[in-house]
Amino acid sequence: MKTHQLSIYRGPCAILTDLNLNIPQGQWTSIIGPNGAGKSSLLQAMAGLLRHTGSLSLEGVELSTMTRKALAKKMAWLDQQGASSPEEFGDSLSVYDTVMLGRLPYQGWLHLPSEADHISVEKVLQQTDAWHLRYRPLQQLSGGERQRVLLARLLAVDSDILLMDEPLANLDPPHQADFLKWQGNLLAQGKTLVTVLHEIHFALRADHLIMLNKGRLHFQGSSQDPRTHQALIELFDGRIRLEKLGNDWVAIPS
Amino acid sequence: MQKNYFLAKLSGLLILSTILVLLGTLLGSTGANWNALGPDQTILFDIRLPRSLGAYLAGALLGLAGGIAQSLFRNPLADPYLLGSASGALLGVGSILCFAYLGNSWLEIIGLNGGAFLGALIGVLASLLLAGGYRSSLRLLLSGVVISVILGAANSLFTFIRPDLFQSIQSFMLGNTTLMNWSGVAIMAIALFLCLAITSIISPVLDALSLGENTARTLGLPLDQLRLVFIGILALATGCAVAQTGLVAFVGLAAPHLVRKLSGGRQRVQLIFSCLGGGILLLGSDLIARTLFAPLEIPVGIVTAVLGGLYLLVLLKRTSFGGRS
To answer: What one-character DSSP code corresponds to residue A92?
Structure first.
């Protein structure tokens, strides 16, 4: 995925200005930056949720020229954990039906889910260790179980690009570890992952980092590159330092 | 296995509906008349049967509209009258009554039912205009509240100018099924069939919306257009029901909650059951209204308000509604 001179306006205010980005295929790209930098807006634009100026293309095809269904099959979206929580007034879908929603891009209005849809739903529920939860209402699940089911819903779309807005928010450390393990599995399958993350130490586990500041590109590069680390420290005004812990980099407030 | 449960629940609700329609047809102010082929055939087939079917269909339309409102606006307290349809219908009836003395032929053609229907549609359209479209649910709901207040004030002006109309308007506000005829039944049956058929086809949108608007949009759904279709169905269903029975309280709000536990969360099932639940609630209330102090009848809206209100109170006691205790 590539952007050229990508800008997003809300009314007269520019949220993002002139972004030229390159999202590597089959890798994990993480978008980071201070609050209000425009991270979620960039991810929403990539998903076709926000209008933009400039170019945003996927495999050489401009996103705005693609039909809704074609785009839905190419890219799947995982909302923030809080935003995806169903309102609690007793009409929550079952886990199975929730995951089946991921097959909507493949279904016609007058058609029931096909055999292929059922097979796909079973496969992703097994993959995320949630098959045994399939008859339970979504709202009765714990945070970790719910996140597994929402990940299964994301995978049910069977798209090559997965966009995730703060997927680790509201998860406790064991569930964050589980989530990172699944991300590893997805990368092994050749999926392209794009995440917005607040937690810098998790973002540093990505292959590629995009740093935004005040709606502009601050830096983009490999997460292992010393220049990226220097840019990251500058992004937060030198108020963090990076240290290696085992194989991972961690950010410590300084 | 789940399909069989659905069929069992659907059959149960349909059987209950049939029993209530039969009771409504056979029960009179002087007790039950079990001889349908006797000398009272005109009373049974031209008065009681259309009244029972009409009450049932109006309840079903309100139940469907309530189910759509609650799912579309993701608000368990949303009801079909939210978008200005109730105050619009009231103003429509008030206008027809107020200007009837002019003897205008158009007013005669439109009649009270037509006035209520047009008023309801105008109320919803005004809410849409004030909200600047249908994309923001919150703006639309707030616009509905504002339009309701404005149209309500206009209606108060009518009763202030013409105090003799107060009783007629009050009767419309409390709901009334006594004047139901076969043409009203036919109109509501056609409207219900149309609304239910379209809703059943596009209901996956409401399922997807339960995961958040962004997720629903990224599933390839034309969300904005379908939201407008839902608002149109809501207006049509409410307008048709209100035009025939007046402003029956609580049915649209309570019916979806009555059947929520049966539906298993799927919106298609939930809306079909809301329909049946609404019909059962309104027809059951109508039977109580007719028989509780027979031969005196009380307005059906009072019974639905008491029954629906009591049920919601019980539900409130049993459910946390996401609150923290």
So the answer is: P
- How many CB atoms within 10 Å of residue B125? 16
Low-confidence residues of chain A, pLDDT below 70?
Answer: 81-91
- How, if at all, do strands A208-213 and A216-222 pair? antiparallel
CATH number reported for the structural domain that contains residue B142 in this entry: 1.10.3470.10
* pLDDT, tens digit, 9 for 90 and up, residues A228-253: 999 999 988 888 888 888 888 888 88
Q: Is B321 on the interface with A (CB under 8 A)?
A: yes
Domain region containing B81: 10-30+38-316
Measured between beta carbons, the chain B residues lying within 8 angstroms of A153 are 211
Q: What is the Cα–Cα distance from A218 to A213, expressed in whole angstroms?
A: 6
Retrieve residue A64's tokens.
Answer: 């705005």
User: Rounded CA gap, B201 and B173, in Å?
Assistant: 33
- Closest by Cα among B98, B255, B247 to B177: B247
Is residue B133 situated within a structural domain?
A: yes
Reading the block at residue B237, the tokens are: 């269903």
Q: Are strands A208-213 and A192-196 parallel, antiparallel or unpaired?
A: unpaired
B258, closest residue in chain A (CA to CA): A90
What's the pLDDT tens digit per position in B217-255? 899 888 888 888 998 898 889 888 888 888 888 889 889
Chain A environment of B202 (Cβ under 8 Å): 109
Report if residue B312 sits inside a domain: yes
Q: Hey, what long-range contacts does B4-7 have (CB within 8 A, 24 or more apart)?
A: B5/B264, B6/B264, B6/B269
Domain annotation covers residue B234: yes
- The distance from CA A91 to its chain's CA centroid, rounded to whole angstroms, is 27
Nearest to A42 by CA among A78, A80, A7: A7
B265:A92 CB<8 A: yes
Amino acid in the structure at residue A40: S
What H or E segment, with its residue span, contains residue B237? Answer: helix B223-245
pLDDT tens by residue, A139-163:
888 888 888 898 899 999 999 999 9
Is the CB of residue B203 less than 8 Å away from at least one CB of chain A? no
- Are B319 and A89 within 8 A, CB to CB? yes
- The verdict on whether omega for the bond into residue B295 sits within 30 degrees of 0, i.e. cis, is yes
Contact assignment for A48 to B218 by CB distance below 8 Å: yes
Q: Which CATH class is domain A2-253?
A: alpha beta
Domains in chain B: how many in total?
1
Interface contacts A/B by beta carbons within 8 Å: 95
Classify residue B112: in a domain, yes or no: yes
How distant is the Cα of B280 from the closest Cα of chain A, in angstroms? 21
Using one digit for the tens of pLDDT, what is the confidence trace for B32-79? 665 655 656 777 777 888 999 999 999 999 999 999 988 888 778 788
What is the rounded distance in angstroms from the CA atom of residue A89 to the CA atom of residue B67?
13
